[in-house]
Write a structure and sequence with these properties.
It is a single chain. By secondary structure, the protein is an alpha+beta fold. The chain has two domains: about 230 residues, Aminohydrolase, N-terminal nucleophile (Ntn) domain (Glutamine Phosphoribosylpyrophosphate, subunit 1, domain 1), CATH 3.60.20; about 210 residues, Rossmann fold, CATH 3.40.50.2020. Helix content is about 35%, strand content about 25%. The protein is built from 17 helices and 25 strands. The strands form seven sheets. A seven-stranded antiparallel sheet has the order 3-2-4-1-12-11-13. A hairpin with a 2-residue loop joins strand 9 and strand 10. The longest helix is centred in the middle third of the chain and has 14 residues. It starts with a strand and ends in a 6-residue tail after the last helix. Bound molecules: iron/sulfur cluster. Iron/sulfur cluster binds next to helix 17.
């Protein structure tokens, strides 16, 4: 997942743009970019692998003055893309994933279009979106037509002479939120980016809705759709704790998740703790509900390490997982520990680093509690690069069945014998004393939106798309 941010100011926007974009640094790891409107478009892109957005852009942003700008922390592609079109020059950033990108690119090639950004034979998704938009009668028409062509998800910001167009993905997988500060406007993936810049949430853009922000204010160009399939994982792991989506704050959902885990649990323990940062709020919720004291047997050295979820290479993810957490033996030795985490993806980091570190430091018991049900399917909408094959639950099923099976419904069913066997296999594999997952209904209750308004594909394999 990428993070996108835009701002329209009555004066110079560069400080807001710089810090607002930087507040999305937890979402992407490959590239970052800024573009401002100053008679025409000024743009800068940097590779941010192994470095921080602020360090890379500090010199650039001070030269990028203008009243409107957009920025991105990109999980994969180089962005913003700048296009000189029949609509005039524009810059565009996207947050999403397009499943039929290569097919669409082939069609465009046939029509005589060309792409300037191609990596390992694959087109840049942002450039593809831009090329689809310019086929429209207007920018708004182009965005709408683009949505009818793509399969996947795409929220975008488009900086043009008239202002910043903001369009949220038609199924709403990714959020887009408008903030207001007197006569200034911002739009962001993460509403947490508004707080220290003085913006207040004005509106959650609806799925499929298109708005424009400019010096005259906010104008809706196309109304949204009733259908919503916002990513549930935003609340469980990917989102920033201070953010809210659809009016629901991330940290409070995580506390509820922990509380719901505790209400079905009777384990006796000396402390409840979480894997920082995303496991922490789940553990706080568990501690509040169970009365078991919250402690920190593992601490994160600095936020300087990337999240181990987002870097594309497994070696990088493993290295980060190993290095960023430091155990405190004085707190761990001889103790019964309830460990809360957001999810188990492959399980190897948990096993090789977290559990291993706790055991080495003399933990007596490790009771692992997971804030969501077992992950059965990798994200189809751009949140991760996992494959089905490597998911911990699938490894368990493969071992129990002696082969990969396609129909895993019986393992998803939380009260089935097969589900229990699968959890038992993962417990043994991780080397923990006990393991419990959140029930799907409890996770949905903790988020607080109707089930039909959430994407639950990771757990159910059902997109629920229309
Ligand atoms: S598949 Fe999972 S990670 Fe992807 S959008 Fe749906 S809930 Fe979110």
């Amino acid at each position: 997942m990428s993070g996108i941010f835009g701002v329209v100011s009555q004066t110079d926007c560069r400080n807001d743009l710089f810090y607002g974009t930087d507040y999305h640094s937890h979402l992407g790891t490959q590239f970052a970019g800024l573009a401002v409107w100053h008679d025409t478009i000024l743009r800068k892109i940097h590779d941010i692998r192994g470095s921080q957005f602020k360090a890379k852009f500090f010199e650039d942003y001070r030269k990028m003055n203008g009243k409107m700008g957009i920025g991105v922390i990109s999980v994969k592609d180089e962005q913003p893309i700048c296009i000189h079109s029949k609509f005039g020059p524009f810059a565009i950033v996207i947050n999403g994933f397009i499943e039929n990108a290569q097919e669409l690119a082939r069609q465009l090639y046939k029509e005589g279009q060309s792409f300037s950004e191609v990596t390992e034979g694959k087109v840049n998704l942002t450039e593809l979106v831009a090329k689809l938009i310019i086929r429209g009668e207007s920018i708004v028409d182009g965005i709408e037509r683009m949505y009818t062509k793509i399969s996947g998800s795409c929220s975008l910001l488009l900086l043009s002479r008239e202002g910043i167009y903001a369009a949220r993905d038609r199924c709403g997988y990714t959020p887009l939120i408008i903030g207001q500060r007197e006569t200034d406007w911002a739009v962001a993936t993460e509403s947490s980016s508004f707080l220290n810049l003085g913006f207040a949430i004005k509106k959650y853009i609806q799925p499929g809705e298109i708005v424009i922000l400019n010096e005259k204010g906010l104008e809706t160009k196309r109304k949204g759709r009733r259908m919503n399939k916002i990513c549930s994982f935003l609340w469980i792991y990917t989102g920033f704790p201070a953010s809210s989506y659809e009016g629901i704050n991330v940290e409070t959902v995580r506390e509820k998740c922990g509380g719901y885990l505790a209400r079905h649990d009777s384990v006796k323990a000396d402390m409840a703790c979480g894997i920082p940062d995303s496991g922490t709020a789940h553990a706080i919720g568990y501690a509040m509900r169970s009365g078991i004291p919250f402690r920190r047997p593992l601490v994160k050295y600095t936020p300087g390490f990337d999240r181990s979820y987002t870097p594309p290479s497994q070696e990088t993810r493993d290295f980060i997982a190993k290095m960023k957490l430091i155990p405190i033996p004085e707190i761990i030795k001889g103790k019964r520990i309830v460990f809360c985490d957001d999810s188990i993806v492959r399980g190897t980091q948990l096993k090789n680093y977290t559990v291993h570190k706790l055991r080495e430091c003399g933990a007596k018991e490790i009771h692992l509690r997971i804030a969501c049900p077992p992950l059965m399917f990798p994200c189809r909408f751009g949140y991760s690069t996992r494959t089905t094959h490597e998911l911990a639950a699938r490894k368990a099923i493969r071992s129990l069945e002696g082969k990969d099976i396609e129909d895993v419904r019986v393992y998803i069913s939380e009260d089935s014998t097969q589900h229990k066997k699968m959890v038992g296999w993962i417990t043994k594999d991780l080397g923990v004393t006990t393991l419990k997952y959140q029930r799907l209904s409890d996770m949905i209750e903790a988020i607080g939106l109707p089930r039909e308004d959430l994407c639950l594909y990771c757990w159910t394999g059902n997109t629920g798309r229309k």
